[in-house]
Amino acid sequence: MRPMLEEAVGEIYRNLLPEKMVVADLGCSSGPNTLVVLSEVIKIISNQCLRVGQQPPEMQFFLNDLRNNDFNNLFRSLDHVEQRLRVGKGTISVPYFVAGLPGSFYGGLFPRHSVHFFHSSYSLMWISQEQFHRDFSHFLKLRFDELVPCGQMVLSFLGRNKKDKLDGEMSTIYGLLAEALDSMVREGLVEEEKFDTFNLPLFVPSSKEVEVIVKLQGLYDIIHFQTFESNLDPFDDDLDDNVVLDNVQSGANCAKVIRSVFEPMIANHFGSAIVDDLFSRYATNVAKHLLKEKLMLPVLALSLKKKEVT
């Protein structure tokens, strides 16, 4: 992902040489990796300024998520950005400003032609193929209107490798969660009727389905498009080894990721009282599975450049 990010941000800067540059991270959440993109973009701009001999632009970052996101925790984490960006030899200090932006990215968020670069990682999700076609098309149109000429986006989200709607690791992830719920039913902690009527809808598109929508709209050039496998544990970046050194900790990390996605739906159906216990059991189930193999998910990543309108 970093090469894609570096190329997109670098090209925007070199082509426009803006005095002010606006970057938005859509669906930023408030987890441990939220501010990594912010740090990376600043480093990229610093390196670009050194290469072309220009003073750095003022960077305005908008961190977007739904209104119930823990923005206070997010802002408390900004000290980590300062640590990452300590200016050393051969670097340029880039002035930057950070603001929270609550609201849905399926609605308008910015004035027309005001944003240079959009980033979104694992935030675009759909419950059905029909919703995917409708909402992804709408998302692309909204961002097109908000991007400056020659603006770009880098998006990554869950995809699938096969024609089946749900396969492989996603089925495993769902199965381990179902086992945790079932154990609570057997212990009388969850009503069986509620368990039987519970459904977690999720549609993950193929690369072809994504490509068709982008080309059908005709609003963007596809600069890069790739499919890769990502570890469900965000703290385990060793893709060359299928061995998990600390399966208990990794299971807890994976459970936090899945909880951040599905907790609202689970709490709405069963009530919030079961959530802590459920994901504690889920973490245990995942830890046992990790003794056999890691949980890897197919991810689609694409870099899009706004087309010039004639």
Structural overview:
- 45% of the residues lie in helices and 21% in strands.
- The protein has 310 residues and is an alpha/beta fold.
- The chain folds into two domains: 2-161 and 202-230 and 299-306, Vaccinia Virus protein VP39 (Rossmann fold, 3-Layer(aba) Sandwich); 168-201 and 235-290, Methyltransferase, alpha-helical capping domain (Non-ribosomal Peptide Synthetase Peptidyl Carrier Protein, Chain A), CATH 1.10.1200.270.
- The chain has a seven-stranded mixed sheet, sandwiched between helices.
- It starts with a helix and ends with a strand.
- The model has no long low-confidence stretch (mean pLDDT 89).
Give a quick summary of the entry.
The chain has 310 residues and is an alpha/beta fold. Helices cover 45% and strands 21% of the residues. A seven-stranded mixed beta sheet has the order 3-2-1-4-5-7-6, with helices on both faces.
Q: In what order do the strands lie side by side in the largest sheet?
A: 3-2-1-4-5-7-6
Cα-to-Cα separation, first versus last residue: 32 Å
> How does CATH name the architecture of the largest domain?
3-Layer(aba) Sandwich
* Shape by Cα distribution: globular
Spans of at least 5 consecutive residues whose pLDDT stays below 50 are: none
In CATH, what is the class of the largest domain? Alpha Beta
What's the CATH superfamily of the largest domain, by name? Vaccinia Virus protein VP39
Order of helices and strands: HEHEHHEEHEHHHEHHE
CATH topology of the largest domain, by name, is Rossmann fold
- The number of helical elements comes to 10
Structural class by sheet pairing and helices: alpha/beta
Count of domain modules? 2
State the major sheet: 7 strands, mixed
Strand content: 15-25%
